[in-house]
Amino acid sequence: MMSNRSDPNITVRADQLRKAYTVTEKEAGFLGSLRAFVRPKTRTVEAVRGVSFELTGGEMVGFLGPNGAGKTTTLKMLSGLLHPSGGAASVQGHTPQKREVAFLKQITLVMGQKQQLIWDLPAQDSFLVNQAIYEISDSDYKATMREFDEVLDLSGILSKQVRKLSLGERMKCELAAALLHRPKVLFLDEPTIGLDVNMQERIREFVREYNARFNATVMLTSHYMADVTALCRRILVIDGGELVFDGDLAGLTTGPDARKTVRLQLSRPATAEELARYGEVVRLDGLDAELTVPRSEVSARAAALLTHFEVADLTVEDPPIEQVIGQLFRSEKKAEPVRELA
Ligand SMILES: Nc1ncnc2c1ncn2[C@@H]1O[C@H](COP(=O)(O)OP(=O)(O)OP(=O)(O)O)[C@@H](O)[C@H]1O
């Protein structure tokens, strides 16, 4: 969909955003260090290669990709922590790298792997620091803390030294601290990493409620697909620094390119080559086989499988979303034309 650049509803825009890092290569050992010091050898890593997309106010979007795909680099550019090597970004009408106060008051970046809270102090001391930095009035501070407490149940943990908190408790405090100023745009980089299932659900609920209450735009990366399926209708998939998919999460399992999983319990062994004539074999374990087939051809393929093999049982289901997205990562072709900016 073409967009109007002045559309006030667009809160985040990346326009051919690029980032190349220059890394110094060093051989092992002392001599290697010396050589690198005297005559540094450098190499360019193209982490983000011309990424374009737009998010509208209140949208929650999953930002997915394999390790090293460029997710964190993109989020850092959108938060103004990194200068793009090319292209442009705009968030709430601001150019992120200018780090204007009015911009910083409207965004937050939460990195599950990094912490913002002061380690040796109770979390509430870090909250007070943020209250001062963001110039939050006492009444707003109290009201926000009350709201956050309802969902996150912060009672009893705010006064403990951060170093003594469990990972889940700390993450609840990290999120609360990062959202104290009620930002309109949330960049959440693995906010649930390492948490148990219950705590992941709690954090999800908090993000969902925050989004509903403040109509906030949320861009979320997570290795837990449950986070994405619970919160996001749309996903952006990045691979090797390029956007390879921008569209509806549901469309991946129902759209024209969608596939179905056919599970077979065979009565007599078959080879992967034989089965591969009827679909893509994703697993063959003794008499248990699993194939994916185009959704539109599922009945014909199932009938053919029943005719050509001795089958004790056959079931058809949607493939796990991890598998569908994994196939996007590996695919060379773009799964759907990526939205072009006007
Ligand atoms: N400061 C840096 N200097 C040099 N290269 C970097 C730097 N930060 C990231 N990279 C490289 O840029 C590429 C993209 O990294 P990035 O952290 O953005 O990926 P990611 O999608 O967030 O990965 P992950 O899921 O593993 O966190 C990788 O090849 C990474 O090694």
Quick overview:
The chain has 342 residues and is of the alpha/beta class. The chain has twelve helices and 13 strands. It folds into two domains: 10-18 and 49-251, P-loop containing nucleotide triphosphate hydrolases (Rossmann fold, 3-Layer(aba) Sandwich), CATH 3.40.50.300; 256-334, 2-Layer Sandwich (Alpha-Beta Plaits).
Structural write-up:
It is a single chain. This protein has 342 residues and is α/β, with parallel strands linked by helices. It folds into 2 domains: 10-18 and 49-251, Rossmann fold (3-Layer(aba) Sandwich); 256-334, Alpha-Beta Plaits (2-Layer Sandwich). Helix content is 34%, strand content 29%. The protein has 12 helices and 13 strands. The chain has helices at 29-38, 71-79, 101-104, 123-133, 138-152, 167-179, 197-214, 225-231, 251-254, 272-276, 298-308, 321-330, and strands spanning 10-25, 41-56, 60-64, 86-91, 107-111, 185-189, 217-221, 234-239, 242-248, 259-266, 280-285, 288-294, 311-317. The strands form 3 sheets. The chain has a 6-stranded mixed beta sheet with strand order 5-6-7-3-8-9, with helices on both faces. A 4-stranded antiparallel beta sheet has the order 11-12-10-13. Helix 4 runs parallel beside helix 6. It is globular and about 70 Å long. The termini are close together. It binds adenosine-5'-triphosphate (ATP). Adenosine-5'-triphosphate (ATP) is lined by residues 21, 23, 45, 47, 65, 67-73.
